[in-house]
Amino acid sequence: MDSPSTEPSAEPLASEPSTHEPSTDAQALAAQGPASSRLVNIQARIAGLSQRLRPYAWLWPPVAFSAGVASFFLVDRQQWLGGALALAMLLAWLLLLSESLIQRRLASRGYPHLSRGVTTFIAQMIHQETLFFSLPFLLATTVWSSGQAVFTVVFMGLALLSVLDPLYFRLAERHRWVYFAFHALCVFVVVLVTLPIMLHLTTGESLAIALAVMVVFAVPSLVNLLRPKRAASWLALIGLALLLAGAGWAGRGWVPPANLWLTGYALSPALEVSARNPSGEMPLTREAVTSRGLYVYTAIRAPRGLSETVYHEWRHNGVLIDRIPLQIRGGRAKGYRAWTHKQRFPAEPAGDWRVDVMTPSGQRIGVVRFTVSETMEEAQVVDGDIQTPRGLPGLDWRQLIPARERDEQ
User: Fold this and answer.
1) Residues contacting residue 195 through CB under 8 Å, at least 6 positions apart
2) pTM
3) Would you call 205 exposed, middle or buried from its count of C-beta atoms within 10 A (0-12, 13-18, 19+)?
4) 210-to-85, 149, 193, 196, 361 alpha-carbon distances in Å
5) Predicted confidence (pLDDT) per residue in 221-267, tens digit
6) Which strands make up the sheet holding 364-372, listed edge to edge?
7) How far apart are CA 403 and CA 229, in angstroms?
8) Is the alpha carbon torsion for 264, 332, 155, 209 positive or negative?
9) CB 141 within 8 A of CB 260
10) Which H or E run includes 264?
């Protein structure tokens, strides 16, 4: 029996000649009094600051990327600091969203407001921060032999677009529906990355919330695309929003589990349970696996405080044979060690085998492949040696960060 181990800125008013008499304008400003004067001064300072920052805007993406790398690793060692970096990301988004509401409220009351150039520049900085902050999480948790590679490459393209000023500002000025779609994708990825760190939500919970928030923020894009005026048009818009949500959930397997990754794996005929280490040596032949069974050992990295169920899905020639749950806990630098022991193999076990390490939401954390042969001469020999996955997850960047002690739970 198988046994598991434990909107960026709002549309500004067009710069057109006033239809009021000058004396009326002066009276209006005088009536607004000191509050209007202070507001004008604050906005002038913001506009001046943005102008001074523009020559140095190229520094912002690498700074955001470095903050993402720091958050990715420090969430294991200094949880409060990793959470603080993630919180700063969310506060930046709250600033961007509140700026849109404030602009509209000021315009409705006749107060001056920031120009579109300034608000778009602020939005660009926050988009760059979001994308470059999130990239380390996506790069390190992507299974590059799966559809997750497409997802991560798309977000790498969005990050590149955010630093190409001519293209970015052209989208913001001429193609508003595409710009708002870009905005919605940025919201999606920041929620996906930060919620497991800050609130210890599972990967599936974070994905569901991120999809819901993305659909809400995609509404301005759909409005600019469809320009609904009648009830039928509004129904079509609602239908497209629901379709977008459904498509996002159906394609969840292509979304990397932004805070879970496979740090090591091994195949062995035995396992030292007390030390949680695979052991022994065995050729993967039909007779050997049917008589002795096979252990698949995995070490899965997760943020400290996160507890989640994952699955080992055993597949023979692409067909699902077993799906065994495992409970993991985050915080261990080298990954939480868990394994499954398969004893019931089919009568004809020869062929290609694959063990997918999956989240309950269907996102792949990693994959272990092996082949069972008919003869000893062609057989693969397993010896319990713990291997690191290919690609970025195999790079032990933590060794670059000094630590007084390592958690070896």
Assistant:
1) 201, 205, 206, 209, 210
2) 0.73
3) middle
4) 19, 19, 9, 11, 13
5) 888 888 888 888 888 889 999 999 999 999 999 999 988 889 899 99
6) 319-329, 307-316, 351-358, 364-372
7) 60
8) positive
9) yes
10) strand 261-268
